[in-house]
Sequence to fold (617 residues):
Amino acid sequence: MSIVKSVTCPVCGCLCDDIELTIADGKVTQVKNGCAMCESKFLNYISEHRTKTPLVRKDGKLVPVSYEEAIHKSAEILANANYPILYGWSSTDCEAQRVGVEIAENVGGVLDNTAVVCHGPSILGVQEVGIPTATLGQIRHRADLIIYWGCDPWSAHPRHLERYTSFTDGRFESSEWKSYLNKVKASIGEKKLSSAARRRGLHCESTETVSDNKPPETLNKEGRKLVVVDVRETMTAKAADYFIQVKPGKDFELMQAIRALVKEQELDVDEVGGVSVKYLEELVDVMINAQFGVIFFGMGLTQSAGKFRNIEDAISLIRDLNMRTKFVIIPMRGHFNVTGANTVFTWQSGYPYAIDFSLGYPQYNPGETSVVDILLRKESDAALVIASDPVSNFPKKAAEHLVKNPLIVIDPHMNVTSMVGDVVFPSSIVGIEKEGTAYRMDHVPLPLKKVVEAPEGFLSDEEILTRILEEVRRIKSQKSKEAN
Amino acid sequence: MVQQKLHVTLLTGRTIEQGVGKEAGKATKGYFESTTMCYMDICDMKKLGIKNKTNILVTTPNGAVVLRAVKYPRGAMPSMIYIPYGPWANSIVSNETTSIGMPSFRGTPAEVEAAPDKPVLSLKELLKSQFGK
Fold:
Protein backbone atom coordinates (compact mmCIF):
# COMPACT_ATOMS: atom_id res chain seq x y z
CA MET A 1 0.00 0.00 0.00
CA SER A 2 1.28 3.45 -0.83
CA ILE A 3 0.01 7.01 -0.44
CA VAL A 4 0.40 9.52 -3.26
CA LYS A 5 0.11 13.14 -2.19
CA SER A 6 -0.55 16.35 -4.11
CA VAL A 7 -2.50 14.64 -6.88
CA THR A 8 -4.37 16.97 -9.24
CA CYS A 9 -8.04 16.05 -9.56
CA PRO A 10 -9.12 15.60 -13.20
CA VAL A 11 -12.81 16.42 -12.81
CA CYS A 12 -13.74 20.12 -12.89
CA GLY A 13 -12.04 23.43 -13.68
CA CYS A 14 -10.92 23.86 -10.04
CA LEU A 15 -8.12 21.29 -10.60
CA CYS A 16 -7.69 20.82 -6.83
CA ASP A 17 -4.07 19.71 -6.44
CA ASP A 18 -4.15 18.58 -2.81
CA ILE A 19 -5.74 15.15 -3.29
CA GLU A 20 -4.21 12.23 -1.40
CA LEU A 21 -4.74 8.77 -2.83
CA THR A 22 -4.16 5.42 -1.19
CA ILE A 23 -3.01 2.81 -3.69
CA ALA A 24 -3.27 -0.90 -2.90
CA ASP A 25 -2.80 -3.80 -5.35
CA GLY A 26 -2.38 -1.31 -8.19
CA LYS A 27 -5.76 0.32 -7.55
CA VAL A 28 -6.96 3.51 -5.87
CA THR A 29 -8.68 2.41 -2.67
CA GLN A 30 -9.10 5.65 -0.75
CA VAL A 31 -9.42 9.33 -1.62
CA LYS A 32 -8.64 12.10 0.85
CA ASN A 33 -9.48 15.81 0.47
CA GLY A 34 -11.60 15.29 -2.67
CA CYS A 35 -15.21 16.29 -3.26
CA ALA A 36 -17.99 13.79 -4.07
CA MET A 37 -17.27 13.97 -7.83
CA CYS A 38 -13.54 13.51 -7.25
CA GLU A 39 -14.17 10.41 -5.11
CA SER A 40 -16.60 9.08 -7.68
CA LYS A 41 -13.99 9.42 -10.45
CA PHE A 42 -11.04 7.96 -8.52
CA LEU A 43 -13.03 5.07 -7.03
CA ASN A 44 -14.97 4.12 -10.16
CA TYR A 45 -12.28 4.41 -12.83
CA ILE A 46 -12.19 0.63 -13.06
CA SER A 47 -15.76 -0.62 -13.37
CA GLU A 48 -17.99 -2.61 -15.66
CA HIS A 49 -18.74 0.63 -17.51
CA ARG A 50 -15.15 0.91 -18.75
CA THR A 51 -14.69 0.09 -22.42
CA LYS A 52 -12.39 -2.94 -22.45
CA THR A 53 -11.36 -3.25 -26.08
CA PRO A 54 -11.67 -1.24 -29.31
CA LEU A 55 -15.04 -1.79 -30.98
CA VAL A 56 -16.28 -1.40 -34.55
CA ARG A 57 -19.93 -1.48 -35.58
CA LYS A 58 -20.59 -4.40 -37.94
CA ASP A 59 -24.12 -5.34 -39.03
CA GLY A 60 -25.53 -2.88 -36.52
CA LYS A 61 -23.60 -4.24 -33.54
CA LEU A 62 -20.39 -3.12 -31.86
CA VAL A 63 -17.88 -5.96 -32.04
CA PRO A 64 -14.41 -6.18 -30.47
CA VAL A 65 -11.44 -5.54 -32.81
CA SER A 66 -7.74 -4.78 -32.44
CA TYR A 67 -6.40 -1.23 -31.98
CA GLU A 68 -4.78 -1.56 -35.46
CA GLU A 69 -8.11 -2.32 -37.14
CA ALA A 70 -9.92 0.47 -35.27
CA ILE A 71 -7.14 2.96 -36.10
CA HIS A 72 -7.19 2.00 -39.80
CA LYS A 73 -11.00 2.24 -39.92
CA SER A 74 -10.95 5.67 -38.23
CA ALA A 75 -8.21 6.98 -40.52
CA GLU A 76 -10.18 5.79 -43.56
CA ILE A 77 -13.32 7.57 -42.33
CA LEU A 78 -11.45 10.84 -41.71
CA ALA A 79 -9.29 10.73 -44.85
CA ASN A 80 -12.30 10.09 -47.09
CA ALA A 81 -14.57 12.69 -45.49
CA ASN A 82 -15.22 16.07 -47.10
CA TYR A 83 -16.21 17.96 -43.96
CA PRO A 84 -15.47 15.99 -40.77
CA ILE A 85 -15.92 17.44 -37.30
CA LEU A 86 -13.48 16.79 -34.47
CA TYR A 87 -15.18 17.58 -31.20
CA GLY A 88 -14.67 17.32 -27.43
CA TRP A 89 -11.10 17.68 -26.09
CA SER A 90 -11.99 19.16 -22.69
CA SER A 91 -11.41 16.08 -20.53
CA THR A 92 -8.04 15.14 -21.93
CA ASP A 93 -4.57 16.63 -21.64
CA CYS A 94 -2.98 19.43 -23.66
CA GLU A 95 -0.63 16.91 -25.29
CA ALA A 96 -3.58 15.09 -26.92
CA GLN A 97 -5.25 18.37 -27.87
CA ARG A 98 -2.11 19.41 -29.75
CA VAL A 99 -2.27 16.27 -31.90
CA GLY A 100 -5.98 16.97 -32.48
CA VAL A 101 -5.18 20.30 -34.12
CA GLU A 102 -2.76 18.55 -36.45
CA ILE A 103 -5.36 15.95 -37.48
CA ALA A 104 -8.01 18.64 -38.07
CA GLU A 105 -5.63 20.60 -40.29
CA ASN A 106 -4.64 17.44 -42.15
CA VAL A 107 -8.19 16.30 -42.93
CA GLY A 108 -9.60 19.81 -43.49
CA GLY A 109 -12.11 19.38 -40.69
CA VAL A 110 -13.80 21.51 -38.09
CA LEU A 111 -12.16 21.50 -34.68
CA ASP A 112 -14.42 22.41 -31.78
CA ASN A 113 -14.41 21.86 -28.04
CA THR A 114 -17.05 21.74 -25.34
CA ALA A 115 -16.71 25.49 -24.76
CA VAL A 116 -19.20 25.82 -27.60
CA VAL A 117 -21.95 24.60 -25.24
CA CYS A 118 -20.63 26.15 -22.02
CA HIS A 119 -18.36 29.22 -22.03
CA GLY A 120 -18.20 29.90 -25.78
CA PRO A 121 -20.27 33.05 -25.18
CA SER A 122 -17.76 34.07 -22.49
CA ILE A 123 -14.95 33.86 -25.04
CA LEU A 124 -16.99 35.99 -27.46
CA GLY A 125 -17.62 38.51 -24.69
CA VAL A 126 -13.91 38.63 -23.84
CA GLN A 127 -13.05 39.13 -27.52
CA GLU A 128 -15.39 42.15 -27.54
CA VAL A 129 -14.21 43.94 -24.39
CA GLY A 130 -11.18 42.15 -22.90
CA ILE A 131 -11.09 40.74 -19.39
CA PRO A 132 -9.68 42.10 -16.12
CA THR A 133 -8.87 38.92 -14.24
CA ALA A 134 -6.63 37.35 -11.58
CA THR A 135 -5.46 33.95 -10.43
CA LEU A 136 -7.45 32.03 -7.85
CA GLY A 137 -4.47 32.40 -5.49
CA GLN A 138 -4.79 36.19 -5.55
CA ILE A 139 -8.51 35.90 -4.89
CA ARG A 140 -7.95 33.49 -2.01
CA HIS A 141 -5.57 35.86 -0.27
CA ARG A 142 -7.12 39.24 -1.06
CA ALA A 143 -10.77 39.18 -2.17
CA ASP A 144 -13.18 40.62 0.42
CA LEU A 145 -16.29 40.50 -1.80
CA ILE A 146 -17.15 37.32 -3.67
CA ILE A 147 -20.06 37.35 -6.11
CA TYR A 148 -21.30 34.16 -7.81
CA TRP A 149 -23.63 35.08 -10.66
CA GLY A 150 -25.59 32.38 -12.49
CA CYS A 151 -23.51 29.55 -11.09
CA ASP A 152 -23.76 27.07 -8.24
CA PRO A 153 -20.26 25.99 -7.24
CA TRP A 154 -21.64 23.96 -4.36
CA SER A 155 -23.02 21.56 -7.00
CA ALA A 156 -20.66 21.96 -9.96
CA HIS A 157 -17.32 22.97 -8.37
CA PRO A 158 -17.81 21.68 -4.83
CA ARG A 159 -14.45 22.80 -3.38
CA HIS A 160 -14.34 26.22 -5.01
CA LEU A 161 -15.55 28.04 -1.90
CA GLU A 162 -13.35 25.94 0.38
CA ARG A 163 -10.12 26.36 -1.59
CA TYR A 164 -10.34 29.71 -3.30
CA THR A 165 -13.02 32.01 -1.88
CA SER A 166 -15.27 32.36 1.18
CA PHE A 167 -14.28 29.35 3.24
CA THR A 168 -10.51 29.57 2.97
CA ASP A 169 -8.00 31.45 5.10
CA GLY A 170 -5.98 33.79 2.93
CA ARG A 171 -3.04 35.98 3.89
CA PHE A 172 -5.21 39.09 4.20
CA GLU A 173 -8.73 37.67 4.43
CA SER A 174 -10.16 35.04 6.78
CA SER A 175 -12.46 32.09 6.22
CA GLU A 176 -16.18 32.67 6.80
CA TRP A 177 -16.76 28.98 7.52
CA LYS A 178 -17.71 29.58 11.18
CA SER A 179 -20.31 32.19 10.30
CA TYR A 180 -21.76 29.73 7.77
CA LEU A 181 -21.92 26.98 10.41
CA ASN A 182 -23.75 29.34 12.78
CA LYS A 183 -26.21 30.09 10.02
CA VAL A 184 -26.77 26.36 9.40
CA LYS A 185 -27.30 25.76 13.14
CA ALA A 186 -29.85 28.59 13.30
CA SER A 187 -31.62 27.21 10.24
CA ILE A 188 -31.79 23.70 11.78
CA GLY A 189 -33.28 25.21 14.95
CA GLU A 190 -35.93 27.03 12.92
CA LYS A 191 -36.80 23.86 11.02
CA LYS A 192 -37.19 21.90 14.27
CA LEU A 193 -39.51 24.54 15.74
CA SER A 194 -41.56 24.67 12.55
CA SER A 195 -41.78 20.87 12.41
CA ALA A 196 -42.89 20.67 16.06
CA ALA A 197 -45.53 23.36 15.47
CA ARG A 198 -46.78 21.49 12.41
CA ARG A 199 -47.05 18.22 14.35
CA ARG A 200 -49.10 19.94 17.04
CA GLY A 201 -51.34 21.45 14.39
CA LEU A 202 -50.34 25.00 15.28
CA HIS A 203 -49.95 26.01 11.66
CA CYS A 204 -50.30 24.36 8.30
CA GLU A 205 -47.49 23.46 5.91
CA SER A 206 -45.48 26.52 5.01
CA THR A 207 -45.13 27.42 1.38
CA GLU A 208 -41.95 29.08 0.22
CA THR A 209 -42.22 32.47 -1.41
CA VAL A 210 -39.96 34.18 -3.90
CA SER A 211 -37.28 36.21 -2.15
CA ASP A 212 -38.17 39.90 -1.75
CA ASN A 213 -34.45 40.51 -2.30
CA LYS A 214 -34.13 42.79 0.72
CA PRO A 215 -30.48 42.80 1.79
CA PRO A 216 -30.00 41.17 5.20
CA GLU A 217 -27.79 42.73 7.88
CA THR A 218 -25.04 40.26 6.96
CA LEU A 219 -24.41 42.25 3.79
CA ASN A 220 -22.74 44.91 5.93
CA LYS A 221 -20.83 42.54 8.20
CA GLU A 222 -17.07 42.72 8.73
CA GLY A 223 -14.84 40.38 6.74
CA ARG A 224 -15.43 38.52 3.51
CA LYS A 225 -18.88 38.86 2.03
CA LEU A 226 -20.55 36.35 -0.26
CA VAL A 227 -23.27 37.47 -2.69
CA VAL A 228 -25.14 35.06 -5.00
CA VAL A 229 -27.31 36.10 -7.94
CA ASP A 230 -29.45 33.32 -9.43
CA VAL A 231 -32.97 32.57 -10.62
CA ARG A 232 -33.43 29.92 -7.91
CA GLU A 233 -32.13 29.42 -4.40
CA THR A 234 -29.18 27.09 -4.90
CA MET A 235 -27.01 25.41 -2.27
CA THR A 236 -24.47 28.21 -2.78
CA ALA A 237 -27.25 30.78 -2.29
CA LYS A 238 -28.00 29.14 1.07
CA ALA A 239 -24.45 29.95 2.17
CA ALA A 240 -24.56 33.54 0.89
CA ASP A 241 -24.66 36.69 2.98
CA TYR A 242 -26.99 38.12 0.37
CA PHE A 243 -28.97 36.14 -2.20
CA ILE A 244 -30.60 38.02 -5.06
CA GLN A 245 -33.31 36.06 -6.88
CA VAL A 246 -33.39 37.57 -10.36
CA LYS A 247 -36.23 36.80 -12.75
CA PRO A 248 -35.28 34.32 -15.51
CA GLY A 249 -33.73 36.03 -18.54
CA LYS A 250 -33.37 39.39 -16.72
CA ASP A 251 -29.65 39.23 -15.85
CA PHE A 252 -28.71 41.71 -18.58
CA GLU A 253 -31.20 44.31 -17.32
CA LEU A 254 -30.02 43.80 -13.74
CA MET A 255 -26.40 44.27 -14.71
CA GLN A 256 -27.20 47.38 -16.75
CA ALA A 257 -29.00 48.82 -13.72
CA ILE A 258 -26.01 48.08 -11.47
CA ARG A 259 -23.68 49.67 -14.02
CA ALA A 260 -25.83 52.81 -14.07
CA LEU A 261 -25.78 52.99 -10.26
CA VAL A 262 -22.01 52.48 -10.16
CA LYS A 263 -21.77 55.50 -12.48
CA GLU A 264 -24.05 57.41 -10.10
CA GLN A 265 -26.86 57.71 -12.63
CA GLU A 266 -30.48 57.77 -11.51
CA LEU A 267 -32.92 55.09 -12.62
CA ASP A 268 -36.48 55.96 -13.68
CA VAL A 269 -37.90 52.63 -12.47
CA ASP A 270 -38.50 51.16 -9.01
CA GLU A 271 -37.37 47.65 -9.75
CA VAL A 272 -35.26 45.77 -12.30
CA GLY A 273 -35.43 42.01 -12.91
CA GLY A 274 -37.46 41.54 -9.74
CA VAL A 275 -35.04 43.52 -7.53
CA SER A 276 -35.96 46.88 -5.97
CA VAL A 277 -33.62 49.68 -7.05
CA LYS A 278 -33.16 50.80 -3.42
CA TYR A 279 -31.78 47.32 -2.63
CA LEU A 280 -29.53 47.50 -5.67
CA GLU A 281 -28.18 50.79 -4.35
CA GLU A 282 -27.18 49.03 -1.11
CA LEU A 283 -25.47 46.30 -3.12
CA VAL A 284 -23.59 48.85 -5.22
CA ASP A 285 -22.38 50.59 -2.04
CA VAL A 286 -20.94 47.28 -0.85
CA MET A 287 -19.31 46.70 -4.25
CA ILE A 288 -17.70 50.12 -4.36
CA ASN A 289 -16.52 49.88 -0.75
CA ALA A 290 -14.88 46.49 -1.35
CA GLN A 291 -11.08 46.45 -1.40
CA PHE A 292 -10.92 43.60 -3.90
CA GLY A 293 -14.07 42.17 -5.43
CA VAL A 294 -14.58 39.30 -7.83
CA ILE A 295 -17.48 38.04 -9.93
CA PHE A 296 -17.53 34.36 -10.84
CA PHE A 297 -20.12 33.55 -13.47
CA GLY A 298 -21.50 30.38 -15.03
CA MET A 299 -24.06 28.91 -17.36
CA GLY A 300 -26.83 31.03 -15.86
CA LEU A 301 -25.39 33.88 -17.92
CA THR A 302 -23.95 32.08 -20.95
CA GLN A 303 -26.90 29.81 -21.72
CA SER A 304 -29.84 32.13 -21.07
CA ALA A 305 -31.26 35.03 -23.06
CA GLY A 306 -28.56 37.48 -24.06
CA LYS A 307 -25.79 34.87 -23.92
CA PHE A 308 -22.52 36.60 -24.91
CA ARG A 309 -24.08 40.04 -24.42
CA ASN A 310 -24.59 39.09 -20.75
CA ILE A 311 -20.88 38.38 -20.47
CA GLU A 312 -19.88 41.52 -22.32
CA ASP A 313 -22.07 43.46 -19.90
CA ALA A 314 -20.63 41.68 -16.85
CA ILE A 315 -17.08 42.49 -17.97
CA SER A 316 -18.10 46.09 -18.68
CA LEU A 317 -19.47 46.26 -15.13
CA ILE A 318 -16.06 45.14 -13.85
CA ARG A 319 -14.43 47.87 -15.97
CA ASP A 320 -16.81 50.45 -14.44
CA LEU A 321 -16.12 49.17 -10.92
CA ASN A 322 -12.38 49.42 -11.53
CA MET A 323 -12.83 53.19 -11.86
CA ARG A 324 -13.87 53.14 -8.18
CA THR A 325 -12.07 50.14 -6.62
CA LYS A 326 -10.39 46.84 -7.59
CA PHE A 327 -12.56 44.16 -9.24
CA VAL A 328 -11.90 41.08 -11.40
CA ILE A 329 -14.04 38.48 -13.16
CA ILE A 330 -13.55 34.75 -13.82
CA PRO A 331 -15.72 32.25 -15.71
CA MET A 332 -16.44 29.02 -13.81
CA ARG A 333 -15.07 26.53 -16.33
CA GLY A 334 -16.62 23.06 -16.17
CA HIS A 335 -14.48 20.28 -17.65
CA PHE A 336 -11.05 20.03 -16.05
CA ASN A 337 -9.14 21.02 -19.17
CA VAL A 338 -11.59 23.02 -21.26
CA THR A 339 -9.41 26.07 -20.55
CA GLY A 340 -6.46 24.02 -21.88
CA ALA A 341 -8.41 23.18 -25.05
CA ASN A 342 -9.04 26.89 -25.68
CA THR A 343 -5.41 27.70 -24.91
CA VAL A 344 -3.86 24.96 -27.05
CA PHE A 345 -6.18 25.65 -30.00
CA THR A 346 -5.39 29.36 -29.77
CA TRP A 347 -1.63 28.98 -29.73
CA GLN A 348 -1.80 26.46 -32.59
CA SER A 349 -4.40 28.08 -34.85
CA GLY A 350 -5.11 31.56 -33.52
CA TYR A 351 -8.65 30.70 -32.40
CA PRO A 352 -10.01 29.11 -29.20
CA TYR A 353 -12.87 26.98 -30.60
CA ALA A 354 -15.12 26.49 -33.66
CA ILE A 355 -12.14 26.39 -36.04
CA ASP A 356 -12.81 25.42 -39.65
CA PHE A 357 -9.80 24.07 -41.62
CA SER A 358 -11.80 23.12 -44.72
CA LEU A 359 -10.13 25.80 -46.88
CA GLY A 360 -6.65 24.76 -45.75
CA TYR A 361 -6.28 27.58 -43.25
CA PRO A 362 -8.12 28.26 -39.97
CA GLN A 363 -11.36 30.20 -40.09
CA TYR A 364 -13.40 31.18 -37.05
CA ASN A 365 -17.01 32.28 -37.03
CA PRO A 366 -19.09 30.81 -34.16
CA GLY A 367 -22.65 30.44 -35.39
CA GLU A 368 -21.33 29.20 -38.73
CA THR A 369 -18.22 27.14 -37.93
CA SER A 370 -19.46 25.89 -34.54
CA VAL A 371 -20.27 22.20 -34.31
CA VAL A 372 -23.90 22.51 -33.16
CA ASP A 373 -24.72 24.76 -36.14
CA ILE A 374 -22.90 22.48 -38.59
CA LEU A 375 -24.89 19.52 -37.27
CA LEU A 376 -28.17 21.42 -37.41
CA ARG A 377 -27.41 22.33 -41.05
CA LYS A 378 -26.54 18.64 -41.63
CA GLU A 379 -23.26 19.53 -43.32
CA SER A 380 -20.74 17.20 -41.68
CA ASP A 381 -20.06 13.77 -43.17
CA ALA A 382 -17.90 12.21 -40.43
CA ALA A 383 -17.11 12.87 -36.78
CA LEU A 384 -14.40 12.17 -34.24
CA VAL A 385 -15.47 12.71 -30.64
CA ILE A 386 -12.92 12.57 -27.84
CA ALA A 387 -13.23 12.99 -24.07
CA SER A 388 -16.80 14.26 -24.15
CA ASP A 389 -20.35 13.05 -24.66
CA PRO A 390 -22.18 15.21 -27.22
CA VAL A 391 -25.01 12.72 -27.85
CA SER A 392 -25.87 13.23 -24.20
CA ASN A 393 -25.12 16.95 -24.08
CA PHE A 394 -26.29 18.38 -27.42
CA PRO A 395 -29.90 19.24 -28.25
CA LYS A 396 -31.63 16.27 -29.88
CA LYS A 397 -31.72 17.74 -33.41
CA ALA A 398 -27.95 18.26 -33.42
CA ALA A 399 -27.28 14.81 -31.94
CA GLU A 400 -29.50 13.23 -34.62
CA HIS A 401 -27.16 14.28 -37.44
CA LEU A 402 -24.06 13.42 -35.40
CA VAL A 403 -25.33 9.86 -35.01
CA LYS A 404 -25.95 9.64 -38.78
CA ASN A 405 -22.29 10.46 -39.45
CA PRO A 406 -19.67 7.71 -39.33
CA LEU A 407 -18.81 8.31 -35.68
CA ILE A 408 -15.41 7.68 -34.04
CA VAL A 409 -15.40 7.88 -30.23
CA ILE A 410 -12.35 7.93 -27.95
CA ASP A 411 -13.25 7.70 -24.27
CA PRO A 412 -12.22 5.54 -21.32
CA HIS A 413 -15.84 4.78 -20.44
CA MET A 414 -18.85 3.57 -22.37
CA ASN A 415 -20.70 6.87 -22.49
CA VAL A 416 -23.87 7.69 -24.42
CA THR A 417 -21.93 8.71 -27.56
CA SER A 418 -19.88 5.49 -27.45
CA MET A 419 -23.11 3.47 -27.33
CA VAL A 420 -24.18 4.86 -30.72
CA GLY A 421 -20.65 5.19 -32.19
CA ASP A 422 -19.26 3.27 -35.17
CA VAL A 423 -15.63 3.01 -33.98
CA VAL A 424 -15.04 3.10 -30.23
CA PHE A 425 -11.60 3.34 -28.61
CA PRO A 426 -10.92 2.70 -24.94
CA SER A 427 -8.13 4.89 -23.62
CA SER A 428 -6.14 5.31 -20.44
CA ILE A 429 -7.53 7.92 -18.06
CA VAL A 430 -5.59 11.17 -18.02
CA GLY A 431 -4.72 12.18 -14.46
CA ILE A 432 -5.03 8.62 -13.13
CA GLU A 433 -3.31 6.29 -15.60
CA LYS A 434 -1.44 8.90 -17.66
CA GLU A 435 0.42 12.06 -16.79
CA GLY A 436 -0.24 15.25 -18.71
CA THR A 437 -0.92 18.97 -18.47
CA ALA A 438 -4.18 20.77 -17.78
CA TYR A 439 -5.15 24.42 -17.38
CA ARG A 440 -7.12 25.52 -14.33
CA MET A 441 -10.08 27.89 -14.84
CA ASP A 442 -7.78 30.87 -14.13
CA HIS A 443 -5.36 29.78 -16.91
CA VAL A 444 -2.74 28.33 -14.54
CA PRO A 445 -1.26 25.15 -16.08
CA LEU A 446 -0.90 22.23 -13.66
CA PRO A 447 0.67 18.79 -14.07
CA LEU A 448 -1.62 15.74 -13.92
CA LYS A 449 -0.12 12.66 -12.29
CA LYS A 450 -0.06 9.03 -13.29
CA VAL A 451 -0.89 7.15 -10.08
CA VAL A 452 -1.67 3.65 -11.37
CA GLU A 453 -0.92 1.63 -14.50
CA ALA A 454 -3.54 1.54 -17.25
CA PRO A 455 -5.08 -1.86 -18.07
CA GLU A 456 -2.63 -3.86 -20.15
CA GLY A 457 -2.48 -2.85 -23.78
CA PHE A 458 -4.51 0.35 -23.36
CA LEU A 459 -3.25 3.35 -25.31
CA SER A 460 -3.55 6.96 -24.20
CA ASP A 461 -5.62 9.57 -26.06
CA GLU A 462 -2.40 11.10 -27.36
CA GLU A 463 -1.08 7.75 -28.66
CA ILE A 464 -4.39 6.85 -30.34
CA LEU A 465 -4.57 10.24 -32.04
CA THR A 466 -0.93 10.13 -33.12
CA ARG A 467 -1.46 6.72 -34.73
CA ILE A 468 -4.66 7.87 -36.46
CA LEU A 469 -2.74 10.89 -37.80
CA GLU A 470 0.06 8.68 -39.15
CA GLU A 471 -2.49 6.40 -40.82
CA VAL A 472 -4.39 9.36 -42.31
CA ARG A 473 -1.11 10.67 -43.77
CA ARG A 474 -0.30 7.23 -45.20
CA ILE A 475 -3.74 6.86 -46.82
CA LYS A 476 -3.62 10.39 -48.24
CA SER A 477 -0.14 9.93 -49.63
CA GLN A 478 -1.18 6.63 -51.24
CA LYS A 479 -4.23 8.33 -52.77
CA SER A 480 -2.07 11.12 -54.08
CA LYS A 481 0.37 8.65 -55.66
CA GLU A 482 -2.53 6.76 -57.27
CA ALA A 483 -3.96 9.99 -58.65
CA ASN A 484 -0.61 10.89 -60.21
CA MET B 1 -58.67 23.50 -8.67
CA VAL B 2 -56.37 21.06 -10.41
CA GLN B 3 -54.97 22.25 -13.74
CA GLN B 4 -54.36 19.89 -16.66
CA LYS B 5 -51.33 21.74 -17.98
CA LEU B 6 -48.93 24.27 -16.59
CA HIS B 7 -46.90 26.72 -18.67
CA VAL B 8 -43.36 27.02 -17.30
CA THR B 9 -39.83 28.09 -18.19
CA LEU B 10 -37.42 25.18 -18.62
CA LEU B 11 -34.00 25.48 -17.01
CA THR B 12 -31.30 22.82 -17.26
CA GLY B 13 -28.09 22.63 -15.28
CA ARG B 14 -25.89 20.79 -12.83
CA THR B 15 -26.62 19.00 -9.58
CA ILE B 16 -24.05 17.31 -7.39
CA GLU B 17 -25.82 13.95 -7.84
CA GLN B 18 -25.62 14.32 -11.63
CA GLY B 19 -21.92 15.16 -11.29
CA VAL B 20 -21.24 12.10 -9.17
CA GLY B 21 -23.30 9.94 -11.54
CA LYS B 22 -21.46 11.08 -14.67
CA GLU B 23 -18.10 10.30 -13.09
CA ALA B 24 -19.29 6.85 -11.98
CA GLY B 25 -20.61 6.05 -15.48
CA LYS B 26 -23.44 7.10 -17.76
CA ALA B 27 -25.00 3.64 -17.57
CA THR B 28 -25.16 3.62 -13.77
CA LYS B 29 -28.36 3.74 -11.75
CA GLY B 30 -27.10 6.87 -9.99
CA TYR B 31 -26.78 8.75 -13.29
CA PHE B 32 -30.23 7.58 -14.41
CA GLU B 33 -31.86 8.59 -11.12
CA SER B 34 -30.16 11.99 -11.09
CA THR B 35 -30.94 12.95 -14.69
CA THR B 36 -34.52 11.69 -15.04
CA MET B 37 -35.89 13.97 -12.35
CA CYS B 38 -37.39 17.41 -12.67
CA TYR B 39 -37.37 19.94 -9.85
CA MET B 40 -40.67 21.79 -9.48
CA ASP B 41 -42.04 24.42 -7.17
CA ILE B 42 -44.33 22.89 -4.52
CA CYS B 43 -47.15 25.30 -5.43
CA ASP B 44 -46.90 24.32 -9.11
CA MET B 45 -47.08 20.65 -8.11
CA LYS B 46 -50.23 21.37 -6.13
CA LYS B 47 -51.74 23.14 -9.14
CA LEU B 48 -51.23 19.96 -11.17
CA GLY B 49 -52.49 17.81 -8.31
CA ILE B 50 -49.30 15.74 -8.16
CA LYS B 51 -47.18 14.47 -5.31
CA ASN B 52 -43.44 14.13 -4.97
CA LYS B 53 -41.95 11.61 -7.45
CA THR B 54 -45.09 11.46 -9.63
CA ASN B 55 -44.23 11.09 -13.32
CA ILE B 56 -44.84 14.14 -15.49
CA LEU B 57 -44.74 14.80 -19.21
CA VAL B 58 -42.67 17.84 -20.15
CA THR B 59 -43.35 19.16 -23.65
CA THR B 60 -41.51 21.87 -25.59
CA PRO B 61 -41.57 22.79 -29.30
CA ASN B 62 -38.55 20.44 -29.59
CA GLY B 63 -40.05 17.29 -28.11
CA ALA B 64 -41.55 15.62 -25.07
CA VAL B 65 -40.10 13.50 -22.28
CA VAL B 66 -41.44 11.73 -19.19
CA LEU B 67 -39.62 12.53 -15.93
CA ARG B 68 -40.16 12.27 -12.17
CA ALA B 69 -41.34 15.49 -10.54
CA VAL B 70 -39.39 16.31 -7.39
CA LYS B 71 -40.23 19.13 -4.99
CA TYR B 72 -37.52 21.80 -5.09
CA PRO B 73 -36.03 21.69 -1.61
CA ARG B 74 -34.89 25.30 -1.29
CA GLY B 75 -37.01 28.40 -1.71
CA ALA B 76 -39.60 29.11 -4.36
CA MET B 77 -39.20 28.82 -8.13
CA PRO B 78 -42.72 29.45 -9.46
CA SER B 79 -43.35 28.71 -13.14
CA MET B 80 -39.85 27.28 -13.50
CA ILE B 81 -38.74 23.68 -13.81
CA TYR B 82 -35.13 22.53 -13.46
CA ILE B 83 -33.86 19.36 -15.13
CA PRO B 84 -30.25 18.21 -14.57
CA TYR B 85 -28.10 17.99 -17.73
CA GLY B 86 -28.37 14.67 -19.52
CA PRO B 87 -29.91 12.99 -22.55
CA TRP B 88 -33.44 13.34 -21.14
CA ALA B 89 -33.15 17.11 -20.63
CA ASN B 90 -31.45 17.55 -23.98
CA SER B 91 -34.21 15.72 -25.82
CA ILE B 92 -36.44 18.77 -25.24
CA VAL B 93 -34.16 21.84 -24.98
CA SER B 94 -34.17 24.47 -27.69
CA ASN B 95 -31.58 24.02 -30.42
CA GLU B 96 -31.69 27.73 -31.26
CA THR B 97 -28.07 28.91 -31.26
CA THR B 98 -28.94 32.58 -31.92
CA SER B 99 -26.10 32.70 -34.47
CA ILE B 100 -23.32 32.27 -31.91
CA GLY B 101 -23.11 28.49 -31.64
CA MET B 102 -24.64 28.13 -28.18
CA PRO B 103 -27.98 26.30 -27.94
CA SER B 104 -30.58 27.79 -25.57
CA PHE B 105 -30.30 25.34 -22.70
CA ARG B 106 -32.13 27.72 -20.36
CA GLY B 107 -35.30 29.67 -20.86
CA THR B 108 -37.20 27.36 -23.24
CA PRO B 109 -40.98 27.68 -22.75
CA ALA B 110 -42.44 24.31 -21.75
CA GLU B 111 -45.70 22.66 -20.74
CA VAL B 112 -45.96 20.24 -17.83
CA GLU B 113 -48.78 17.76 -17.24
CA ALA B 114 -49.23 14.86 -14.87
CA ALA B 115 -48.40 11.48 -16.44
CA PRO B 116 -48.56 8.95 -13.60
CA ASP B 117 -49.18 6.07 -16.02
CA LYS B 118 -46.39 6.89 -18.48
CA PRO B 119 -42.97 5.31 -17.80
CA VAL B 120 -39.63 7.11 -17.73
CA LEU B 121 -37.62 5.64 -20.60
CA SER B 122 -34.33 3.91 -19.78
CA LEU B 123 -31.20 5.22 -21.49
CA LYS B 124 -31.27 2.41 -24.08
CA GLU B 125 -34.98 2.96 -24.78
CA LEU B 126 -34.40 6.71 -25.14
CA LEU B 127 -31.51 6.21 -27.59
CA LYS B 128 -33.52 3.66 -29.57
CA SER B 129 -36.51 6.00 -29.80
CA GLN B 130 -34.38 9.00 -30.79
CA PHE B 131 -31.69 7.56 -33.02
CA GLY B 132 -32.77 3.98 -33.75
CA LYS B 133 -29.45 2.70 -32.34
Notes: Chain A touches chain B through 68 residues (CB under 8 Å).
